Amino acid sequence: MPVPQADSAAARRAAERAADLVNLLAEDPEPGQVAELLHAHGEVPPVSLEPADVAELREAAARLAPVFAAADVDMAANLLNDLLATHAHPPRLTTHGGSWPWHLHVDRDDDGPWGEWLLASSSLALATLVADRQLPPGGVCAARGCERVFAAAGSGSPRRFCSTRCATRARVAAHRTRGA
């Protein structure tokens, strides 16, 4: 009997949002910058964040970062199980008061704290990717000096870089090293 799966496309989008938030929050952003990123990932404006909300999100992002850096699928699964056990609540369906189609949440409620939302929703999305792919849900950029995380939700060769820019810089540096 097939195992029921959450919407993989929605999980990929949520995992990408989580990676973008982990990266942005590592830079100590202003509330407006975080709100812009959330809006870019589909949150309906206005997204109103206070400095305390950003601090809470930063703490949550720091708890998610090791999942992206997990060396293997077992480590990623164990980290996600710990996060889900600590931060997820029973699954519930919500439309956010009719603003969205019905979708699954594992946070406490629609008006819960931002950090709880980020940990619960991201853990569910990343766990879905692990279950779908049987691989870690992301990685840390392999480019020298870059520590950005990324969601690895596609098929094909394992992703090593956070962006085309980092991949190109690494290839150019390797080419120069070989030619020297």
From TrEMBL:
Domain named Zinc finger CGNR is located at 140-178
Q: Which residues form the signal peptide?
A: none
Against Pfam families, the record matches this protein to: zf-CGNR (PF11706)
Top-level lineage group: Bacteria
What are the transmembrane regions? none
Show the Gene3D superfamilies listed in the entry.
Jann2411-like domain
Q: What is the name listed in the Swiss-Prot or TrEMBL entry for this protein?
A: CGNR zinc finger domain-containing protein
Q: Which organism is it from?
A: Amycolatopsis suaedae
